[in-house]
Amino acid sequence: MIAFPAFFGRLHLIFLHLPIGFLLLAGALALYGVWKKTYVYRPALDLTVGLGALAAIVAASSGWLLARSGGYEEAILTRHQWLGIASAALAITTWLLRRSRWYLPALATAVGMVSATGHFGGSLTHGEGYLFQKTENEMLATGVPENTTAYEAIVHPILQQKCVSCHNPGKKKGGLLLNTPEHILLGGKHGPVIVAGLPDSSELMRRILLPGHDDDHMPPKGKRQLTPDEIEVLKRWIAEGADFSMPAAQLQDGNGASAAKAGVSFPPVQADPAAPGALDALRQNRISVMPLGENLPWLAVSAAGKKDLDAVGMELLKKNGKQIIHLDLSHSNTSDPMLAILKDLPHLTRLNLSGTAVTNEGLQNLTVLPFLEYLNLSNTSIGDEAVETLVKLPALRSLYVWNSGITPVALERLRTQLPNLRMDAGAPADSTAAPLQLRPPKILFARNIFEDTVHVALDFPFKTVSLFYTLDQASPTTQSSRYKGEPLVFDQSTTLRAIAAKEGWENSSIVQASFVKRKWTPQSATLLVPPSPKYPGLGANSLTDGKIGETHTDKNFLGFEGEHLTAVLDFGETIDFQRLSVHYAENNGSWIFAPHGLQVWTSGDGKNWKPCIRARYPAPAAMQENKAGILSETAPMPVKTRYLKVTVENLLKNPKWHSAAGKKCWVFVDEILVE
C-alpha cells in the first residue's frame, strides 16, 4: 500500500496546474479591469487570487514531498522548489494586499514568479531547453544538412520527442539518460540499454516492443508512443552497430524519408498498391495500418490488443492481403480458426502472435508463408509439436517463444535444424508458480570512509530470512558467510556485498557498500592528464573529497577514455606511507572496465621519484557484473614521503570478446585513499 506522503507527492502533477490557471486568470481579470477602468470584476479577482494562493500552497507542499523521492537533477530541482515556495508566499501576500495600492504590482509579480516556476518544472520533466526545441515538423522542414550523422538527424530527434522527457539530466528515471551518445552508451541502473548489432537483445527495444499494458513498456501509458516507422529506425540503427558517426544517408531511402523504409526487409515479389478505401475501412474498424514507404505497396497492420476481431475484420485483412507484410495480432482474441486467413497473406515477413490463444494446430497455417522472417509466439500455449511446423519456414530468422509450452529439448532440436535461427526462449517453462523475490537487506553504517575501524550492520525486517555476504567483491550466494546479527568490524578497505535468502523464495538482488580506510588526507591533488570532458567529476578534487559512489552514474567519478589516470598528491608534510586504495566503477556494457594496473611513486620534493608499488590485474575474459569496487595495494615497506604519484592504468581498448572490440574503453575512479 502506498504511504500517504508519497501518494500526496505524486498528486503534484495534478495540483501544479491549479495555481498557474488561477493566477493567470487573475492577471487577465486585472488587466481587463485596468483597460476598462471598472471595478465590477473586483470580487471575482479577489476570489481568484485567494484560490490561486490556496492552490499554490497545496502544489508547493506536494512538490516538496515528490522531490524527496529523488531522480531529479539537483540544480534545476532546487531552483524549481524555491521558486514554487516563493510563488506560494507571494500569492498569499498578494491576497493580503487586496485592499492596498500594492495589490496589482504584487499580482503582476506573482504571475511572473509562477510562470518562471512552471518553466523550471517543465525543464525537470522534459529536459533543459525544451521550450525552444524544434518540433518534428520543423526538423523535417529544415531538411538534413550535408555530412550530418544518422544519430543527429534521425535517431536523436526520436529519442528527444518520445524518451528524453523521462530520461534527462533533470529527471533521470532508472538512472538512465538518453540525451547524449555518452549517456546512451553508459546505460542505467539495470545496465546497458543497447547491444550493438543486436536490436532484439537490446533493453531499449525490448521495452518499446512490450505490450502497452505492461508496466515496463516504454514510453509509459499516457505518453506519446513511438510510431512503427520510428521503431524500425531505432531497430535498424542498432542492427547496423549503433554507430553514432554513421552518415544520415545510410539510414535514409532514396526519397530522403525516414530510415524505417530502408530497414524493412521486403519480399522479392511485385504487388499493386492497396486501394485507399480499403485502408480507410481497416482504420474505421480500429485496425491500425501504416504504409512502409512512399510509392511502395507494402503495409504494416496492427490489431494488437483488439479483443473483438471477427469475420468482418478478417475479411478486411484479406482484401489487403497481398500488400500486408507486417501483421501484429498480439494480445488479441486471435484463435486457431482465424489463422486460416494466412493463406491470403502470402507476403508476410513479420507476424506477432504473442499472448493469443493459438495452438500447435493453428500454427500449421504458417507453412504457406515463404518469406516469414520474424515470428513471436511468446505467452502462448504452443508445445513441442510446433517444431515440426517451424522447421518448414525457410526464411525464419528470429523466433520468440519465452513463456510458451516448448520444452528446452524441443528448442535444442529446432536449433540444430535451423542453425541460423536467433531464438529468445527466456527462462525455462515451469509448471509451478515462480517464487517471489525477497527485497534486499539494508546496510547500516555511520560513515564509509574511516581512519581506524568502522562498524557495519545488516538489517532485514523478518528474522526468519537469512543474510549472506562477501568481502572479496564476489557475488554472494547461500554458500557465502552468513550474517549472525552482530555488527561487522572492518579495519581495512572493504567492499561488502549482501543478499537476503529464504527457502521457497527467490534470493534478493545484491546490495553493496564500500568502506575505505584513510589515514592521510592530501593538502592538494593535481591531474597530469585531465579527465574526459564528458565525465569531469570535480576535477582532481573528486579523488580526495571523501565522497564515493556505488554506481558509475554517480557524478563523483572521473572518466578517462583510452588513457591512464595519473595524479600527484601533496600532503604538505612528510607522512608514513604504507597502503593505497583506489575506488573504481565497472560497467563493461558501457565500455567501462576495472583498472588494469596500479603504479605508485614516492618523492620528498615532487621532482625526483622512486618507484614504490607496481601491480597488474588481468583483463576480463567475459562480461563482468556492473559494480563499484576497491583496489588496495601495500607498499613493500613503510616509506616516509611528502608526495605520491599514482597511475591507475586503463585497459585502453575493449577486449576481443566485446561487441565493440578494439575501440577505446574507459576507467572510472572517484577516490584515492592513503594509509
Describe this structure in words.
α5 packs antiparallel against α6. The radius of gyration is 30 Å and the shape is globular. The strands form 5 sheets. It has a 7-stranded mixed β-sheet, covered by helices on one side. Strands 18, 20, 21, 22, 23, 24 and 25 form a 7-stranded antiparallel β-sheet that branches. Strands 11-17-16-13-14 form a 5-stranded mixed β-sheet, with no helix packed on it. About 4% of the residues have low confidence. It has 5 domains: 129 residues, Four Helix Bundle (Hemerythrin (Met), subunit A), CATH 1.20.120; 127 residues, no CATH class; 161 residues, Leucine-rich repeat, LRR (right-handed beta-alpha superhelix); 75 residues, Immunoglobulin-like; 157 residues, Sandwich (Jelly Rolls), CATH 2.60.120.1190. By secondary structure, the chain is an alpha+beta fold.
